[in-house]
Structure formats: structure tokens, C-alpha cells
Amino acid sequence: MSILKNYISDYIISDEKVKLSTSGIYYIPSDENLTGLKKYIDTLPNVEDPEVFGMHENTNVAFEQQES
Which residue among 20, 43, 54, 63 is least enclosed by CB atoms within 10 Å? Predict the structure, then answer.
């Protein structure tokens, strides 16, 4: 629930470009057409970083250690 509180609020529907991560990779695109949205999706990384979930980068290190 605490992660959802970061993303579900009034600022999401503002007219400005809303960043969903500190790096700025993940944001709500302002394009309203399908072609623009597809271009944005193509720029996203194939593997999500922990920042997309509001977590620190070290969580990925801990996950990889557990996997090995």
C-alpha cells in the first residue's frame, strides 16, 4: 500500500510531465496517440530496476545474491 500511495494521487492527473522515478526514465507520457506511446514503451529498459517500485538499487544486489 505504501508503494501505491506514491503513484495514486492527484498529481498523477496534472498537465505536467509526471516522473515516476528519480532517474526520470519512468514517467507518464504526454502523448495521447498510440504511436507516441509505443515509442515511449520502446525506450524503456527490458529489465526493470528496483526504482520502478520505489526501492533502492541495493535491493537488486540482495535479490541476485539470494538467487545465486
Answer: 43
> Could you tell me which of 45, 46, 50 has the C-alpha nearest to residue 64?
50
Write down the pTM of the prediction.
0.56
Q: Which CA distances in Å does 54 have to 23, 31, 40? A: 11, 24, 20
Domain regions of the chain by residue span: 2-67
pLDDT tens per residue across span 12-31? 666 567 777 778 888 888 77
Q: 25-31: long-range contacts (C-beta < 8 A, 24 or more apart)?
A: 25/49, 25/51, 26/51, 26/52
d(CA 64, CA 56): 14
